[in-house]
Structures are given as C-alpha cells and as structure tokens.
Write a structure and sequence with these properties.
The structure is a homodimer of 313-residue chains. With 313 residues, chain A is of the alpha/beta class. The first copy, chain A, contains eleven helices and twelve strands. The structure holds a DNA duplex (25 and 25 nucleotides).
DNA sequence: GATGCTTACGATACCCGTAAAGATA
DNA sequence: TATCTTTACGGGTATCGTAAGCATC
C-alpha cells in the first residue's frame, strides 16, 4: 500500500471510474493507474471496484468503507504538508476562500484589504461558487474558508461561525408606487413582478418562506445570482427587487430606491465555515478573526475539532 | 512522503530516539532509517527531531504536531488492512483481548469457550497485563478489546461498556474468629493483617477508599496481582484476604471461607473497552456481545465513534 | 470504430543494506 | 573506547510510460 494507490482510489471514485481520466488528473499513465488498483486489490485481498468485464462501474461494499478511510488518510497527508508550511514559512503561502458573489462584492473587500496589508506574501485565492459548491470545496479540501448565508451551517462536517447579520430590502425604480405604501406588506409587493436571487442563494430560502407562511403568491419573474444583476433589471423596469440591503449603494444606484423591509423577511446570518479536521495556516485564523473579531484561533480550533459527528467506521 | 517514513517517525518517538533500535524494530538498516528521516525533513522543510550534534533527543514543536497526524494515518492504514480481512475472510483472523488475571481466570472462560465454538478459525490471543498496560495496548492498537475494572473507563480515547458488577469479599482460614463477627465491620477486619490486590488492580482503589472514608487504618501486609496468590497466603495464615468474591470456589477452597462484605465495600464494575476509531472485525463485536448480551454491533459502533473528544489538530 | 482496460516490457528512479567516516558520551 | 549517526556507494526492486492486445459500447 502506498500513497499513489490511495490517491488513485480516491480519484477513481471522483472521476466516475474512468481510469483514463484518473491518469490525466494525476499526471501519470492510465496503465499505471490500472496496475496500481490491481496491486492494491491483490494486497488487500478484496475487490474495491465493481467491474463489468473490463469496465469499472462503481465501488463494492468493502470499497465504500475503504474510501472513507482513504479520504481521511489523504486529508491527513495534506494536513501534514500544510502543517510543515506553517512552520517553515509562517507568513508565506496560499489561502483559498470560496464565497458567493454577495459576500465577495459587499462584505469581504474591507476584510481582504486589511488582510493583504498584514500578510502581503500570502497568495489569496478568492473563488466564487454556489453555496453547494462552497460546501463541496470545503469538504474536498480545495478551499480553506467558505463564506455564505446558505448551506454551510447545515453540514455536520463543517464548523460554522456567524460572520454578520443582515436583512433583505426592497429595491424599486425611483418614484415607484410602493414608496408610498405604509406600511409595506407582502401583499403590496406581490402586486408587482419580483426579481430576486436564485434558489439556494443569499437567503432566497427565507424569502420564499416568508411569502409561503403569509399565504401570499409571489410572482418571481426572474432570479439572478447577484444583486448587481437584480439592480440592472429593476432599473430596466422589469419589476421590483428583493435583495440584501447592504448591496444597495445610494451614491451609485441613483435611479433606484431602497425600501426597508426588515419587518417582512427574517434576519439572515452569513456564516464562515471550515471543514472540521482541516489544518489551517496561522494566517487563515487571522483572516477569520478579521471577519469577526471575537473569533480567535483558540475558539475556532476548538469548534473545528473533528469531534462530535464523524462518520462511523 | 511514504509509509515507511511515517512508520519510522512513529517508531523513533516510541523508542526514545535511538535510530539503531528503530532499524531493528522495523527490520531494516539503521542507515536507511537515518536517510528516511532526513528525506522527509527535507521534503517538508522542517526539522522533526531535536538534535544535539548527531544525537536525536526529542521532537521539535512541529514534530509533535506531526506525530499526532502520523499516528492517525498509520492507525487508519491498519484499519484498512483489518477492513480488508473482514471482507476477504469473514470468520478467520486474529482477536487480541487483553485483561487482568481476575477476568481471565474467573469471568472470561465461559465467554471464550462459547466464542471458540462459534468462531473456531479465529486465533484468540489472550494477553495479561495491568490496567495501565491494557489501556496502552488499546491505544497503540496492539489489542482489540480490553477488559478490566480499573483505568479503562477513565480514558477519553477509549469507549467503555459495563461487563458485569461484583463485590469484594473477605476470605479467611476456616474457623477464623471473624466468622463469628456480626455484623462484620472494617474495624474488625483491621485487627488482622490484610492481603489484597496491588494498587491499581481489581478494585483496590475502592478498598483503600472504603477504609480511608471510615477513618480506619488497614494493615495491608501483602499485595498480589491475583486472587489465587491471595488465597495461597491466607491459607498459610499470613492474614485475611480481601478479593473479588467471584474468585472464591467453595468446592476447591476447602481450607478457606468466604464472608460476605458487600456492605463494606462499594460495588465494582468491570468494563469492556475498545479504542475509538479502531476498526473491529465482525467477530470482535460478537465477542463483546457474548460478554454482555445487550451490546450489539450497532450500539458498540455508535459509542466508539472517534467523535466526542479527539485531540485538537 | 471509438473508447477504455489490461498486460507486456524496457528504462528509470527509488529504496535498501554494507561499509567507512565522523560525532558523542 | 564504545555507541550512535551520517554519508557514500552498489545492487536490487518497484514504479512508470510506451505500446500492443482486447473488451465494451
């Protein structure tokens, strides 16, 4: 058993059991991949993959159990590398933060500017993705820190911390009739076509829930991934926008107006998430601390203890 | 980074940083050991061991953190092997049970007889040791199941389950004056020299505690690891014995008599312990179930989830 | 017929052990 | 001086990639 074999097992499971692809992904030959799998299966005395003739189709039962252990081992191997880097070059390295448009555009710039001032030699990789992609990247170790309003807090393998609280607001073209509506109600909003976030993005869940609980049918004519797109179409007169109020900028968005709707939609919490058991560099803890000053390294480490809910063997 | 290097790191830490010994233990040359360490240190870019000139003295800070990960990885590697055996040969393999004399002699024979009937092809290794040694063997993965009254339940990395409850009894030579003593008291016992278990064995802690709390000074003239030795010396007239009452056999111990002392010493619980995260063969779960019928595989697996209290990174 | 897996084979790199040299107690 | 580690070097082995052979779709 060696690490190359383990990497191949993991990659095979990830790449739909296509060994040619695995070979490419791991920068080696496909024949080598094939042999490694065979060798490992022989050594262990079990079949790891289900075969139909010469094609691999999936994992066997022992293969499934094996994969869990293999992933943990490879994750630990990566942790070792990170740990070593932490000691060999304290303030040099990489940090991958994955987040949604909303955070990247409105919440993070201040944090990142400060971070870069403190750690100029750290290469910061800001990756954008859906909440689901964020979770997946955290789980696969492709990202160190994930930031999103959705999904993150629901996954057991991820430790999450509140970053900031915010509300949705209603954005309308200047002079819109809803500006005269006191108090603003969901019913009133539902008279107009609505433009808001995609399902699963930036508190969309809570918007839907608010309408559903009030028994009001919302006419969502368009959904977008980010507030900039929403604003663009509201400006074009396609409807009224429901979006994070922090994304409204009175100086720039001169053709639009923001209406407070804090009483209509529940508060949202944007979370910072890291995978439990994922080794973080010192500066990664500092990044989190910059996001939320209460979260020092000790607190984060404690909460991200692999503990509480790991998979059974 | 390869497994041999990891094994060498672990073994070096275990063998007091003597590379010659490490070479012997791993059946390889000492020069190879030396080179592997150097290669790994170069690859990681950190010093793992503290050196004074050419001698290794201990682990550096990064080395200490590294060792934790290394041990987990090697443990997972072993788990993979066990997992494979479980699938390749369901009822063939090894099971190492480590326990104290008392359990091996009085509690386990019935269980083991039954187990061997069900799993004739499993090589059962019964190892005797002190409670401390039992804990250590579990932690190092040298034993699968540990059974003892002491120590096991106090270690976080070990999941423990009650096996059976028992009391200490007083053993005296036939015709001894204490046989007439109603009710039996600690004071009365303390008039005689006492022979009982070693510190840290078979409920000795609770015996000491009972005397201490009653403010009675016990004259323990001799301590032994097991009841057979205790009985021998009680028979010789050296004193009265305090030992597990289950270890008294009226048929065989004809020159001795057992006096109930359940009211004097608190009840003892003998525990079954397994290391959390240690992969157990199917028959190991059956062994535990034979010990205590309520403990089925699902229950044991659940409680031995690495979970709850793993080391921080 | 195109794609994908296995087997065979030769080149290379890695790992191991012997032996000699250097350091430590 | 005895013990221990490092470095150097040669032999063996395992790994890798190319190429050919075959199965699957």
């Amino acid at each position: 058993m060696n690490f190359q074999q383990l990497r191949i097992i993991r990659e095979t499971a990830r790449r739909n059991f296509n060994l040619t692809e695995v070979g490419n992904a791991l920068f080696t030959s496909q024949s080598g991949v094939s042999k490694h799998i065979k060798d490992l299966e022989d050594e262990l005395g079990i079949e790891v993959f289900v075969r139909k003739g010469k094609r691999l189709l999936g994992l066997t039962d022992p293969g499934k159990e094996l994969l869990i252990l293999v992933e943990r081992m490879l994750h630990d191997a990566r942790n070792i590398k990170t740990l070593a880097e932490q000691y060999s070059q304290r303030d040099v390295g990489h940090l991958t933060v994955v987040t949604t448009h909303t955070q990247a555009r409105y919440a993070l710039p201040a944090v990142i500017a400060e971070f870069k001032k403190i750690f100029p030699k750290v290469h910061l990789k800001l990756h954008q993705g859906s909440p689901q992609e964020i979770v997946q990247m955290l789980l696969e170790g492709e990202a160190d820190i994930g930031i999103a309003t959705e999904a993150i807090a629901d996954v057991g393998e991820i430790a999450s911390f509140p970053f900031y609280h915010w509300h949705h607001g209603l954005v309308v073209p200047s002079g819109h009739a809803l500006l005269e509506q006191y108090p603003l109600t969901l019913e009133a909003i539902s008279d107009y076509p609505i433009i808001t976030y995609h399902e699963g993005f930036t508190g969309r869940t809570r918007i839907d829930k608010a309408f559903a609980e009030a028994g009001v049918a919302a006419d969502i004519v368009m959904s977008a991934l980010d507030a900039d797109v929403i604003k663009t179409y509201v400006e074009l007169g396609l409807g009224v926008g429901i979006m994070a109020s922090v994304a409204f900028n009175p100086q720039r968005d001169t053709h639009l107006q923001l209406i407070d709707s804090r009483h209509l939609f529940p508060e949202n919490v944007t979370n910072i998430g890291i995978r439990k058991g994922h080794y973080l560099r010192g500066y990664a803890y500092r990044f989190i601390e910059l996001c939320s000053p209460g979260l020092d390294e000790a607190a984060v480490r404690h909460a991200s203890n692999p503990s509480k809910d790991r998979d059974e063997l």
